[in-house]
């Protein structure tokens, strides 16, 4: 019997299941014994569509958690706003910070949350801004403001914000958040985009929780635009942790995902739209 079920509702690629769709974005439904948490919403209604195809009811989720303010994780809030329920939305307070992507011609494209807080609140969404680490439900933790410790995770230079003087500076991504669940056998980690660095995030969680096994990690790793050296350093660091299953998604990119598949063999999978991951009472990971 599954202790935790993770259902990928939105990803850049889709599993071969009838009716399941993909888009650039990420969204996962986390179901544990008594909790139901929606982590991210993709960029459109697609997560909702895929949930319906998979028979997952999202109208009664206990909380919606946002990994950061980019449009490809927050765009689907509009769909939740149309339901009319009082959804609790947990995020770091920087989630509404205006953020941009540098274009080839030097211009900036807005890539932050497409809606402002007051609009979403007028539609019934209730924001609760979380601290750097917060237990949002028994055994389920939100973690952000991850220290940048590795030398090889440099951050994406194309992703920027404007400082108080209006200067364009690298996005600090204080809001880059992940979720982890504690079980007796180890941790289950769900990453959003890993803008602070996948290895930084996992190191930080292990610093908080001790050197425990990581039963499963899924989510975006932001390796799509990095050097091959960063990918191999990431793989090396992951080998140094007790990661028992690794399911990559979204901004991992196809090349880095292929490298990881070679490195982790049967422990590797692609956490695509429509993939359902069950973690059983023995810590086993079953994919559907
Ligand atoms: Fe993303
Ligand atoms: Fe992002």
> What general form does the structure show?
globular
Characterize the biggest β-sheet.
8 strands, mixed
Can you count the helices?
A: 7
CATH superfamily: Ribonuclease Z/Hydroxyacylglutathione hydrolase-like
- Rounded to the nearest angstrom, the distance between the terminal CA atoms is 14 Å
CATH class label: Alpha Beta
The tally of beta strands, per DSSP, is 19
Helix-strand topology string:
EEEHEHHEEEHEEEEEEEHEHEHEEE
What structural class do you assign from the helix and strand content?
Answer: alpha/beta
- In total, how many domains does the architecture comprise? 1
Architecture per CATH nomenclature, i.e. the level-2 architecture: 4-Layer Sandwich
Strand order of the largest sheet: 8-5-4-3-2-1-18-19
Features:
about 290 residues; alpha/beta; Metallo-beta-lactamase, Chain A; eight-stranded mixed sheet; seven-stranded mixed sheet; 7 helices; 19 strands; binds fe (ii) ion
Task: Describe it.
There is one protein chain. With 288 residues, this protein is an alpha/beta fold. The chain has a single domain (2-287), classed as 4-Layer Sandwich (Metallo-beta-lactamase, Chain A). It has seven helices and 19 strands. It has helices at 46-53, 71-74, 77-83, 117-122, 198-209, 228-239, 254-264, and strands spanning 2-10, 27-31, 36-39, 63-65, 88-91, 100-102, 108-110, 126-129, 133-137, 140-143, 159-162, 168-170, 178-183, 186-191, 214-220, 246-249, 268-270, 276-280, 285-287. The strands form three sheets. The chain has an eight-stranded mixed beta sheet with strand order 8-5-4-3-2-1-18-19. It is globular. The mean pLDDT is 96. One fe (ii) ion (FE2) is lined by residues 26, 70, 72-73, 193, 220, 250-251. One fe (ii) ion binds at residues 68, 70, 193, 195.
């Amino acid at each position: 019997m599954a202790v935790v079920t993770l259902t990928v509702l939105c990803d850049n690629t889709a599993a071969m299941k009838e009716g399941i769709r993909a888009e650039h974005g990420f969204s996962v439904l986390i179901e544990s014994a008594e909790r139901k948490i929606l982590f991210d919403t993709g960029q459109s209604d697609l997560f909702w569509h895929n949930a319906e195809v998979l028979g997952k009811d999202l109208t009664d989720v206990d909380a919606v958690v946002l990994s950061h303010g980019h449009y490809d994780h927050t765009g689907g809030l509009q769909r939740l706003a149309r339901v009319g329920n009082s959804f609790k939305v947990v995020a770091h307070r920087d989630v509404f910070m205006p953020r941009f992507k540098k274009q080839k011609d030097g211009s900036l494209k807005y890539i932050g949350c497409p809606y402002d807080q007051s609009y979403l609140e007028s539609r019934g969404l209730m924001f609760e801004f979380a601290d750097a680490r917060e237990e949002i439900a028994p055994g389920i933790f939100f973690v952000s403001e991850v220290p940048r410790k590795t030398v090889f995770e440099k951050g994406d230079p194309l992703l920027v914000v404007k400082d108080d003087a209006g200067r364009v500076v690298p996005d600090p991504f204080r809001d880059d958040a992940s979720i982890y669940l504690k079980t007796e056998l180890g941790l289950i980690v769900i990453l959003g985009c890993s803008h602070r660095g996948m290895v930084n995030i996992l190191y930080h969680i292990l610093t908080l929780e001790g050197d425990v096994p990581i039963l499963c990690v899924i989510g975006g790793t932001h390796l799509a635009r990095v050097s091959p050296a960063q990918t191999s350093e990431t793989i090396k660091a992951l080998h140094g942790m007790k990661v028992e299953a690794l399911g990559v998604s979204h901004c991992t990119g196809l090349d880095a995902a292929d490298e990881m598949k070679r490195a982790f063999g049967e422990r590797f999978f692609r956490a695509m739209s429509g993939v359902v991951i069950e973690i059983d009472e023995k810590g086993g990971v079953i994919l559907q």
